[in-house]
Amino acid sequence: MMAKGTHTTTMMANDLPHVEVSCLDCHDDPPHDETSDMGAALNSHLDVMACQTCHIPSLHPDNVTRRDFGTTEFEEGPGIYIYHDELKLSAPGEGINYVWWNGDCTFLGNPIGDNPNEAGLYTFYNAQYRWPEFEDFDYEGWFEEVMRPIARNGRPSKIYPMKRFNGRQHIDLGNIGPFGGMFVPYNLPDYYQNGDPDQAARLEMDKSMMGMMYGWMFKIYMLDRFMSYMDIDGWNLDSFEDVKAGRNTEPRWVPTDPMLEISHAIRLDGALSCNNCHGPQGVMDWQELGYTEEEIKALSRSR
Question: pTM score > 0.85 for this model?
Fold first, then answer.
């Protein structure tokens, strides 16, 4: 049985969603020695920072930040074609991104949260890879109208470290919206053997499951609602023949980088200290975290 808890950006349906996973399940509350000045100072951060923020100072050097499934390269050892890893970052502020998070997330893995200063300067969705069909979509207006109230009315937010990741994969362009679209799966044996993502996407559409997926039953019972989460008005069955023929489909990045929760790199040795965050070389982007100019000046002073 696997505990899931109520804090997740991956939305995996694990066995025990009611069982919380917390550092304080094992460690004292508060976790640092209150009798020392340093311990008291660290404990004073607990209302706004998760334990993981300091205790995950880096990721594995091979950590992938951007993976392009639409481009392949041949691996001599196993003798197969694989995806192209475009970017690998592991350092704080690079591979690790710091966000406000209340435990909830959007449909495409964007952690929901807000800076408790209520200055309205923090956003967690910016569509940095917005698709050409939606260049004129008012993402800022949408965020203020829809997501800001959700973030503020949810559970209290804390600063968490997240693994930044984006993948470029074939999309059915007949089923897209401002926040993404339907991924087209690949026929993996063909993908690995021939290294042609376009062909692998076409071949996968020949499977009976894909025909059912583009049928009326899936539309009514699942996919109309599924697509609505990306602000798409219903599941378009008419695009099936196009995608099957390799038309009206191409690989694209998700419009905004998903952020994946991380917990397995927690360690005591090497944890971030005061000057890793505060000071001119601090790993925190205080402006991106929605602090005011006055707050940024105070937070940027070395400790």
Answer: yes
